[in-house]
Amino acid sequence: MIEPAERYTGYTAYDYLEAGRDFREFRYAKQIGRVPAYEGLQLTDAQTERTARLLREETVISLHEHVQVFPEDMGELRDHIRQGREPTAYEGLSRSGLTAVFDNGMDGTCCISSDAGWKYQDVLFDLGVRMADMAHQDFVVKAESVKDIEHAAATGRIAHVFALEAATMIENEVDRLDVLYGFGVRQMGIAYSEANTLGSGLKERGDGGLTYFGERAVERMNKLGIAIDISHSGDRTCVDVIKHSRVPVFITHAGARGLWPTNRMKTDETIIECAKRGGVIGIEAAPHTTLSPAHPKHSLESVMDHFAYCVDLVGIDHVSFGPDTLFGDHVGLHDAFSSNLSIGQAHGHVDYEKQPYVDGVENPAEAFYNIIGWLVKNDYSDDEIRKVVGGNTMRVLKEVWV
């Protein structure tokens, strides 16, 4: 287990308020030790030491996480969400080894005013409340630039980047992108599974590609310095976005459809087009996504099968990690919001054996230790590891962010 970062002082979410008076208190899932520790690596002493050194010394960036902690009883989930006060898991993050994390909130299930999610006023409320809490501690800091990430690394902090998985909440108002940028959003998806005014999501029967309004939105994101994510967009929309953007784009959390044939995975064409224009794919680890024929029970091994496939396809310079994990019962979240998250349409007709959690990549506190451990065990060099755990992402951000 990774020891807490020295900079972390023990702050818990909304400590500056009075629980029970200022907000309803819930019993939350354990941030550490909710599930058994992963035993699949079995590193030698030398490999363990090298893994710990790389995690400690390198710039380690997750392209996609949800760093909130969820209720222990997922039956309380909707009540928890409706009060609009998602708690950041500071303790768990203190043990993650991360330098920076792209936190995508839970805006597809942000049901403060509507069960459908993605409402503009709800998203702004969610962002504002999370920032208010973050401003009352000094370990996880809001990051809006490459310099902020570098400063966090130099001072033993974690740089927290606000991101959104879709631009659905801007509706037909491109200037809302400026407002969201002003709130600190520095990465945004085009569509989350369902089509919107910008383009098609991956669950739709047909994909008309990037709309004319979507082109305007991509241009505005480029001008503002918002990194674009196409993880949940349809195949044609993905390629259209890549070609229309004047800077590289991210596939922040996905895997390869050539290895596991579901809509949630990306085609070889999309991954190749993304890489040809300098972009990066972050390998996904959310439950029942990056499975593989060799490892059909979702675990670190199946996740890394997708990593190896993508490295073979486009090279080590265009692959990173966006595990898409959280603190709590991720499978329970999917069960509770299956329609919002389009689980059925994303998986299509591919059969898989349901697992209670992803062994080895269950939450942000354990993900990168085990990922780096796997890379060490499989004889990747320090330079190669440096690229895939943060270097490739930093290269793109230096080109995309203003």
List keywords for this structure.
single chain; 402 residues; alpha/beta; TIM Barrel; 6-stranded parallel beta sheet; 3-stranded parallel beta sheet; 9 strands
Outline:
The chain has 402 residues and is α/β, with parallel strands linked by helices. Helix content is 37%, strand content 10%.
Q: What does this 3D model show about the protein?
A:
With 402 residues, the chain is of the alpha/beta class. It has a single domain (55-400), classed as TIM Barrel (Alpha-Beta Barrel). It has 15 helices and 9 strands. Strand 8, helix 10 (300-314) and strand 9 form a beta-alpha-beta unit. Helix 1 crosses helix 14 (367-377) and helix 8 packs parallel to helix 9. The protein starts with 44 loop residues before the first helix and ends with a helix.
Topology (elements, then pairings):
Blueprint: H1 45-57, E1 61-65, H2 77-82, H3 90-94, E2 100-103, H4 120-134, E3 140-142, H5 146-155, E4 158-164, H6 176-182, E5 185-189, H7 212-224, E6 227-229, H8 235-244, E7 250-254, H9 268-276, E8 280-283, H10 300-314, E9 319-321, H11 330-336, H12 338-341, H13 343-347, H14 367-377, H15 382-400
Parallel strand pairs: 1-2, 2-4, 3-4, 4-5, 5-6, 7-8, 8-9
Helix pairs in contact: 1-14, 8-9
